[in-house]
Amino acid sequence: MDIQLAQNKLFGAWDSGKNGQNPMQSYRIVNERKWQETIDPLKLFLGVVIGRGSFGVVHKGTYQGQPVAVKVLDFGDTKITEASMAFVKEDFVKEVNVWQTLDHPNVSKMIGATMSMTKNCRQKTKKKNTESNFCIVCEYVRGGSLRSYLSKNRHKKLPFRTAIRFALDIASGLSYLHSKKVIHRDVKPENMLIDKQHMTIKLTDFGESIFEPSELLYTTGERGTRGFMAPEVVARKPYGRKCDVYSFGICLWEIYNCDMAYTFNIDNLTPDIYREMRPLISVNCPKSLAHLMERCWDTDPKKRPEMKDVVVLLEEIEKYESFQTVPEDLHGGCFTFFRF
User: Fold this and answer.
1) Which of 155, 199, 261, 331 is the most exposed place for a label (fewest CB within 10 A)?
2) Number of structural domains in the chain
3) 177 and 122, same structural domain?
């Protein structure tokens, strides 16, 4: 089925709920109609665990003899009811439907997905009973997550040109997503992989991603990760793709500083306090980069730039700063203080 047609039917189904039809039932029907197995589980080999997320375990594996990463849904110790499983299946299908449409150098490539992994897949290690039959197979990116890379280089920091290159890769990937009407909704270093061979960044994990509707969304709960989550999302107000721009601004700070923006628990902060909190930018940070950070994490989504414009601005910063001297002792980054 054509993706745009399916997308229109999906949001049409939600609207029809106002006329008496159950919107979740319509959503399920559309997803069921779109779903089909896109890999052969018999050709999938599941290896060691290389990463964990909120609802998924990532294994290194092989598919048709080629190295791959396999994201398997994992419910932990939670006992899943039949009703809950229906919603889990919907979310899984939604992620697959978003991810399989994407093709960009700065987005990890999805190879396929299956809902019948356990009974057919060969496994090097015994899979826990809490893991489901649902898995997504994507390209294996050698180099690990950006979070791991930043942690390893925390004390020596990244060369300025490397930091800008990484930021450009992320901005290019997000600009592509937005051009395809996709909102990532969980932009953070943990969801970015480093291609060690080419030293490029690839966005991954589209479990929170959605196709952007014509009108702003309204969420009844937080989506994403505190610290990178835009204030309007925390406050449960209408939001759109500019929530990704806010997240990018925090990521830009972390890449430049090679550190975490928040080292204390912010999960219980009220929306009013969270709204005013930002990492402090030191005087050592080039003004052009500092200004871009501030624009991206502006409280007002309308004042944040589009990601395609961020790409242009970063390219200009890269060209300008390449003619400037940025001493390594001055690129010690911003200190971990915060403004309220």
Assistant:
1) 155
2) 3
3) no
